[in-house]
Amino acid sequence: MKVLVTGGAGFIGSHVVDDLVERGDEVVVLDSLDVAAHREKPDYLRTDVECVFADVADSEAVGALVADHDFDAVSHQAARVGLGVDFDDVTSYVHDNDVGTATLLRALAAQNFSGRLVVASSMVVYGEGRYRCESHAIVRPGPRSSRDLDAGRFDPSCPTCGAELTSETVPEDAPLDPRNVYAATKLHQEHLAAVYGRECGVPVISLRYHNVYGPRMPRNTPYAGVASIFRSALEGGRAPAVFEDGGQRRDFVHVTDVARANVLALDAPSSVTGAFNVASGEPHTIGEMAIAIAGAFPGGLVPEVTGRFRSGDVRHVVASPVAARERLGFSASVSFRDGMQAFATAPLRP
User: Fold this and answer.
1) Strand, helix or coil at 149?
2) Rounded distance, CA 338 to CA 331, Å?
3) Half-sphere exposure of 177 (CA within 13 A, CB side)
């Protein structure tokens, strides 16, 4: 199989490339090596794949690349990730994620691409997770107020009666509610890809990654994940700063599992389409994650719970892994304990 991997020099994309090459597929990498994510050319880039260094939003470069190759499948990993610095980042996110995806889809449509398209999405499209009220069943709390957050009331309450809520796993058919710029662009990527799939008869799968961690994560930048931020703090001799009370629940899934989910999605029958959660099914709190990394890192630093918060953050979001298991054959294999212990000393990307 001949596969185009956009963002193939990045954290997740490079692991997808490894898995594909090692099983015998021919891979072409498209990556801009954006300085926001790559301070230098990664030393893990393979020499046995064709690499094209261009912006996925560059219509001329992407059009020529797709025209020059008869791809059987496309793994679209290229994206600007994280919460960024502030709202001034909005045009960069829209350019890289929305315009980049549109440019790729246009190029594929122009060449009558008929293979499989897998798009990297994110759990951020859900906004807050799924909650149950004892009196009102499944409810959808709105964004948390600054007044509650300032007072240390971090858990959302029932929007009808104000009662405490129980967090549950989120299925793929849950209502979507992106609450920051990054989330909005990821949802738009899903929508663009779905429209393309319907209009051009191409099977499309969007993989909603949960909190991915592991080797090759970028070091502490505004676009890095929380696990990388904690690791970078420890390397700098600082205690990880845990926001809120550390009780935010997430699902941490190892990058090697995420890469395997991508390969399974690329191999799926054409009848398998839509969105799938890529999660371990083993939720943990941000505080537990900070303790696990700090405990395995030399130096004995203890995470600091700060009580600080970010307005775009959500409290709990953990997903149901059932659909991915039943339709893609994916189940995570790296445990939280083993993965975090290894990540504490794993090589990060400069």
Assistant:
1) helix
2) 16
3) 15
Query: What's residue 149's pLDDT?
Result: 94
CA 57 remoteness from chain centre: 20
Rg (CA), the chain: 20
HSE-CB at 117 with a 13 A cutoff on CA atoms is 28
Tell me the CB-side half-sphere exposure of residue 174, using CA atoms within 13 A: 28
Tell whether pTM > 0.85: yes
Is the per-residue pLDDT at 85 higher than 70? no
For 169-225, how does the pLDDT look when each residue is reduced to its tens digit (9 = 90+)?
999 999 999 988 999 999 999 999 999 999 999 999 999 999 999 999 887 666 567
Q: What one-character-per-residue DSSP string does 28-97 give?
A: EEEE---TTT-SS--TT--SSSEEEE--TT-HHHHHHHHHH---SEEEE-----S--SSGGGHHHHIIII
CB atoms within 10 A of CB 164: 11
What's the pLDDT score for residue 291?
96
